[in-house]
Amino acid sequence: MTTMEGLLLAAIVLLALMVAGMLAVGVRLVRRLAAPTAPTGQPLSVIVDDPEAVAERERQRQTLVELQNSVSDAQTALEAERRSVAAARAEATAVRAENAAAKAEVATSRAEAQRVLDAAHAEADTVLQRAHRQAEEDAEQVRSTARRTGEREIAMLTSTAKDQAAEAERRLQRLDERERLHAAEAERLAERERQNVEEAERLAERDRRIAAAEAELAKWELGLQGKEQELAQAQEQRRKELERVAGLTADAAKSELVETIENQAKREAALLVRDIEADARSTGESRARHIVVDAIQRVASEQTAESVVSVLHLPSDEMKGRIIGREGRNIRAFETVTGVNLIIDDTPEAVLLSCFDPVRREVGRLTLEKLVLDGRIHPHRIEEVYDVARFEVERMCQRAAEDALVEVGITDIHPELVTLLGRLRYRTSYGQNVLKHLVETAHIAGIMASELKLDPELIKRSAFLHDIGKALTHEVEGSHALIGADVARRFGESDEVVHAIEAHHNEVQPQTIEAVLTQASDACSGGRPGARRESLEAYVKRLERIEEIAGAKSGVDKVFAMQAGREIRVMVRPEEVDEIGAAVLARDVAKQIEEELTYPGQIRITVVRESRTTEIAR
């Protein structure tokens, strides 16, 4: 029996004793509860009814129930222990069987080990014998290898000894050769020493000769100094004798001689300058004429003179009635909004638009053209189309300026200058389109600069921008040359360009070749036959002055010169000018025009004061 089995058996016995004791106690308690006895002198009914007795019995009953439960639990545990003991016995039996199998396996292993050991001893003997044989063979091979190695080393040592002997012989030969060379070098040094001694003797002899020559030269110098003193005394006596004979001192004679030579040089220089100037005038005038003619004939410019009337073709004559409108409502609204005279006569399928301002005339032409294409013609539609046409004209002006810049080859320019150049598309000077005049002037100036070997880009830029101030003459006081120079300076143009602009009408004296060529090219472009018309310019100036007089009054919104200047329509702001003020304004404008302008016939001044009230019904 193993220790585990003994412990399990002792535990089972202990549990059995505990269960037996509990059973005995439980039986005794049951008997007591089954036959209760009352205390002496008290009836049983009293005991039964006593609460304490009832509580005691209840406690005893609960105790009994607990004991019964404990007995049941003990029996369950006893049964479990029995099963455990049975399992332990089965396990012990299995362990005994395993021990027996292990013992048998150990015996088998011992037998196998003995057999393996015997085989190992036999194998070891065999291996030992083979090892002895191999060792003997290896020893013989080592002895043979050592013998061959020794023979090779002896041969190598012999060869090395021979080489060392040969090297020693060569060293001895080199030492002998070096000694011979040293001996020869010593002989050369001795010879050089002898030569140096001889050279030193020759130098000493030459020094003695030089010293003798220097002594002789010193004697000569003393003699020369005496002769120089005698010569100086003779010259002084001669000078005094000349001064006595001529009656002049040496300084006065020198001054007179210098003055004579100077006058002669000035005369010769003046003659040379006169000849050069005469030759320059003759050849320069011919050369300048050749350059100007060549520049003009190489510029094929367009016709720049423009009219003040535009013709618009209509799809049919019925459109004239729609343009006029009921009782002339549409034509009055058109002329009021655009400031352009609309002339409708018997010309088939055509109407005339007349205005001295080219920009305003072009806006009116586009407005009427769009109205005719759209077919809807009434005052409100006229105002809408007028705004669109004005924007298109501004865009065309910008495009025209960009095309002009590309044509003359200018790329880097301020955008504000491009805008100002665009305004010149519809600006004329004596009937000549200003923007085309600038392009033509730039081409002529560039050709002249190329002929004179100057910078054509700078001169073309100066000529192209010289009339930029004409875009602002109606906004800024002053001449267009000074206005243009100020604008160019403000937008970063160079000093040469600014000076050429301000000097092209001699308001500032020209100081550079760029300014002179700008003047020349401007004169070539504007002075050619057919370029300008004086009468048209005067007419336009008069109309502009009429509008300026009316526009300068307080409360004026717009001013339009109509009917070739015979009628002026003044649009006033109703919140600033009342009915009486409108009459006073018309009288003041008429009086100022009479005082300042000269004109044929009469001019009618019409002041229009219009109030509009708009409400939207929702």
TrEMBL record:
<dbReference type="InterPro" id="IPR022711">
    <property type="entry name" value="RNase_Y_N"/>
</dbReference>
<dbReference type="Pfam" id="PF00013">
    <property type="entry name" value="KH_1"/>
</dbReference>
<feature type="coiled-coil region">
    <location>
        <begin position="158"/>
        <end position="251"/>
    </location>
</feature>
<dbReference type="InterPro" id="IPR036612">
    <property type="entry name" value="KH_dom_type_1_sf"/>
</dbReference>
<dbReference type="GO" id="GO:0004521">
    <property type="term" value="F:RNA endonuclease activity"/>
</dbReference>
<dbReference type="InterPro" id="IPR006675">
    <property type="entry name" value="HDIG_dom"/>
</dbReference>
<feature type="coiled-coil region">
    <location>
        <begin position="57"/>
        <end position="107"/>
    </location>
</feature>
<comment type="function">
    <text>Endoribonuclease that initiates mRNA decay.</text>
</comment>
<keyword id="KW-0540">Nuclease</keyword>
<dbReference type="Pfam" id="PF12072">
    <property type="entry name" value="RNase_Y_N"/>
</dbReference>
<keyword id="KW-0378">Hydrolase</keyword>
<feature type="domain" description="HD">
    <location>
        <begin position="434"/>
        <end position="527"/>
    </location>
</feature>
<dbReference type="InterPro" id="IPR004087">
    <property type="entry name" value="KH_dom"/>
</dbReference>
<dbReference type="InterPro" id="IPR006674">
    <property type="entry name" value="HD_domain"/>
</dbReference>
<dbReference type="InterPro" id="IPR017705">
    <property type="entry name" value="Ribonuclease_Y"/>
</dbReference>
<keyword id="KW-0175">Coiled coil</keyword>
<protein>
    <recommendedName>
        <fullName>Ribonuclease Y</fullName>
        <ecNumber>3.1.-.-</ecNumber>
    </recommendedName>
</protein>
<keyword id="KW-0694">RNA-binding</keyword>
<keyword id="KW-0255">Endonuclease</keyword>
<comment type="similarity">
    <text>Belongs to the RNase Y family.</text>
</comment>
<dbReference type="InterPro" id="IPR003607">
    <property type="entry name" value="HD/PDEase_dom"/>
</dbReference>
<dbReference type="GO" id="GO:0006402">
    <property type="term" value="P:mRNA catabolic process"/>
</dbReference>
<dbReference type="GO" id="GO:0005886">
    <property type="term" value="C:plasma membrane"/>
</dbReference>
<dbReference type="Pfam" id="PF01966">
    <property type="entry name" value="HD"/>
</dbReference>
<dbReference type="GO" id="GO:0016787">
    <property type="term" value="F:hydrolase activity"/>
</dbReference>
<dbReference type="InterPro" id="IPR004088">
    <property type="entry name" value="KH_dom_type_1"/>
</dbReference>
<dbReference type="GO" id="GO:0003723">
    <property type="term" value="F:RNA binding"/>
</dbReference>
